[in-house]
Design a protein that fits this description.
mainly beta, seven-stranded antiparallel β-sheet, 24 strands
Length: about 325
């Protein structure tokens, strides 16, 4: 698993949690990257049927730009990264960083919050190979597609975590990003909300990471409201849910390259079923009662990552 996101600076309270659900001890190696270099790996042992929490500041001390590669050497584990930041007694927000299975030359990030006055977004990149990457970004909106200024052909230095601010985008609806590169790359979007004048809240932030194509799955939003944004070629997705009165409803979401779906009222269980053959990528902005910013990738549950299975060899049973 790859985690592109988080901070290990002075405000960081971020934690990497490694859960071992197996009946034997697991060995995990953490390969950290910062803004300057790929750091030496760190070996961690996790006892059977237990978990271990590691401060991000102890893995990449003092650096604001962080990426991690978690490799399972033995056992079966699941990893989580929570980016939590505080300044004294002031809470600056928190967000889970969605794991990425592998770098890719074409990737999608969907369901991003757009607001010229109340939010700023930054792209984070990591090229894990040994060659610099030439990157191109395309913004997908409900009204069309365009490339931000300066992102038509951008060089990203290899094995260094790089943050690049997104320019101000004059759109008010959720949007998505397509990243294409001549080298396998990892990417994420960091969005921070800016409190308005007189607002006592300190703002919030959220991480959105590369997505995998959606398959049929269900998600429970527990009464929250949400806006969903899908990306894909001639996409078609069926959504089934129950409204606040318990009435079963369904709709088909379709578009040539992208589609926005904004159901009214609170949502509980929703089932998404892709109807078109080309890959479809989806994300959502979830609004809850506390007014925080929440990104929801439309992905299946995190998979348990296991070490490669040992090849059976009958020679181990014979005498020498």
């Amino acid at each position: 698993q790859w985690f592109v996101g988080g901070s290990a600076g002075v405000t960081s309270q971020s934690l990497l949690e490694i859960v071992n659900s197996g009946l034997s001890a697991s060995t995990v190696e953490i390969y950290p990257f910062n803004s300057k270099v790929a750091l030496a790996p760190i070996a961690i042992k996790v006892k059977a049927n237990s978990d271990q929490k590691i401060s991000l500041a102890s893995i990449v001390p003092g650096d604001e730009l962080v990426a991690l590669h978690i490799v399972t050497d033995s056992g079966r584990v699941t990893s989580f990264l929570l980016d939590h930041r505080k300044s004294g007694l002031k809470d600056l927000g928190s967000s889970f960083v969605t794991p990425i299975s592998a770098p890719a030359t074409t990737s999608f990030i969907s369901g991003l919050f757009a607001s010229v006055k109340s939010a700023v977004s930054t792209m984070r990149f990591l090229v894990p190979g040994n060659v610099d990457a030439n990157v191109h970004l395309a913004i997908f909106t409900n009204g069309g597609t365009f490339t931000p200024l300066g992102f038509d052909s951008r060089t990203i230095v290899h094995q260094r975590v790089t943050d690049i601010p997104l320019p101000t985008i004059s759109i008010t609806e959720p949007y998505g990003i397509e990243i294409t590169s001549d080298q396998p790359i990892l990417a994420a979007t960091f969005t921070r909300t800016i409190p308005s004048v007189g607002d006592k809240l300190s703002g919030d932030f959220a991480w959105a990471n590369q997505l995998t194509p959606i398959s049929r799955f269900a998600v429970n939003l527990a009464g929250a409201s949400a806006q969903f944004f899908f990306m894909g070629n001639s996409l078609s997705v069926k959504a089934q849910w129950r409204d606040s009165k318990g009435v079963a409803r369904s709709t088909v979401i379709s578009g040539s390259a992208s589609a926005l779906w904004h159901p009214q009222g609170p949502l509980n269980g929703i089932i998404f079923t892709p109807l078109s053959k080309p890959a479809i990528y989806g994300g959502a902005i979830v609004a809850n009662t506390d007014g925080g910013l929440n990104y929801l990738p439309l992905l299946a549950n995190p998979l348990v990552v296991g070490a490669p299975r040992v090849n059976p060899d009958l020679r181990t049973l014979t005498r020498r």
